[in-house]
Amino acid sequence: LQTTIPPPLNQSINPYTTIMSVTTRKPTLFESMACGGAAAAFAVNFTHPIELVKTRMQVSGGGLGATISGVVKEGGVTAFWKGLPFGWGRELSYTSVKLGAYAPVRNAIGAGGPDAGIGMKFLAGALTGGFGSILGNPFDVLKTLAQTNTKGEGLGLLVGNLYRDQGIGGFYRGVEVNIMRACVLNATKMGVYDATKGFVTEQTGWGRKDIKTSFTAAFVAGFFMTVTVSPSDMIRTKLMNQPTDKKIYNGFVDCAAKTVKEGGVLSLWRGFIPIWARFAPQATLQLLTIEAIYNKLGYSGI
């Protein structure tokens, strides 16, 4: 039931002014996770090409223009969506937790109030990001292999070769850095987004559910995500892209040391532009979509 607020006698009637508290409620953990997974699976269709270019730049060390030209030459425009099925799997597992579980976990640890500190919001983001990365690691590994595969091998062959050479453990290579990356990424993404929404609301008078508020907060979160996550993203990509039949790096520290030795400290931020070009629209699409789903289903937003 939706109740309309009676306007004062000297004001015209606005049919869109409603009492939201009557029709909204907090979603349960699993309801919120379902919303998060749906939002992420929708958004990845648009951001996957950017992710593919970023991954190939990190692996090859090539420039943006040369990488894009190589992808087009290899398989045409559709090659930019190579590995998308694994991208869907990743979003429906990993992102359903890191995005969808954030609000319930934030509320459970007492960080949902307007006076809650940003540190607690970062903690909620780190917890959901870290746990989600464990669920999504196999899809991350397969997606990375598919995106960097230039031999035209089918998805089934990639999975079969990985299992044959490394067993189940192969699907969890790079899991340590992936957990670390996910904690930093999601703490930054959700913490900055949540805090920025509050700041924008106070400074502009826009409501927390206003699309302008969500868009601004998501864009800001996307930039800070890129700054904090780029180094671990580079190392994760290198660890996951190792050949299935041999091991190049002995874990996170060894990979980081060899990367810095080969290209200097700034090489950890190689691909910053495509990473930002992916994070900004991806964060915006995911967050705007989940807020729209929450609103459509009568749930309170982030």
Question: How would you characterize this protein structure?
Answer:
The protein is mainly alpha-helical and 302 residues long. Helix content is 70%, strand content 0%. It is built from 11 helices and no strands. The longest helix is centred in the N-terminal third of the chain and has 32 residues. It is globular. The two termini are 22 Å apart. About 4% of the residues have low confidence.
Question: How do the strands and helices of this protein lay out in sequence?
Answer:
Layout: H1 20-23, H2 29-60, H3 64-75, H4 84-98, H5 102-108, H6 118-148, H7 155-166, H8 175-204, H9 211-240, H10 252-263, H11 272-297
Helix pairs in contact: 2-3, 2-4, 2-11, 4-6, 5-6, 6-8, 8-9, 9-10, 9-11
| Largest sheet geometry | none
Mean pLDDT: 85
So what's the overall shape?
globular
Strand content: under 5%
Kindly provide the radius of gyration, computed on alpha-carbon positions and rounded to a whole number of angstroms. 21 Å
Give the number of DSSP strands. Answer: 0
Helical proportion, percent range: 55-70%
Structural class of the secondary elements?
A: mainly alpha
Ends distance: 22 Å
Task: Say what oligomer this is.
Answer: single chain
Runs in which pLDDT lies below 50 for 5 or more consecutive residues are 11-21
Q: How many helices in DSSP terms? A: 11
What's the order of the H and E elements? HHHHHHHHHHH
